[in-house]
Automatic annotation (TrEMBL):
It comes from Lacimicrobium alkaliphilum. Gene3D superfamilies: Erythroid Transcription Factor GATA-1, subunit A. The keyword Zinc applies. This is DNA gyrase inhibitor YacG. Keywords: Metal-binding, Zinc.
Length: 60
């Protein structure tokens, strides 16, 4: 069994890592709603949290 499993060698492992780092590979988004959630910025998240009745940052 290869010590670089699931890769065949260190070279293949580094090539794959480089492709992920260069964003040549990505995990696909399932749909428009998931894509919208992925594009949320901090202001959107803070606005959503402020609309909640329960304060998530303080112990109950």
């Amino acid at each position: 069994m290869s010590p670089y499993r699931p890769f065949c060698s260190k070279k293949c492992q580094l090539i794959d890592l480089g492709e992920w780092a260069n964003e040549e590979k990505a995990i696909p988004v399932k749909g428009p709603q998931d894509e919208a959630n992925a594009q949320m910025d901090i202001e959107d998240i803070e606005a959503m949290l402020s609309e909640q009745e329960q304060d998530f940052f303080k112990p109950s």
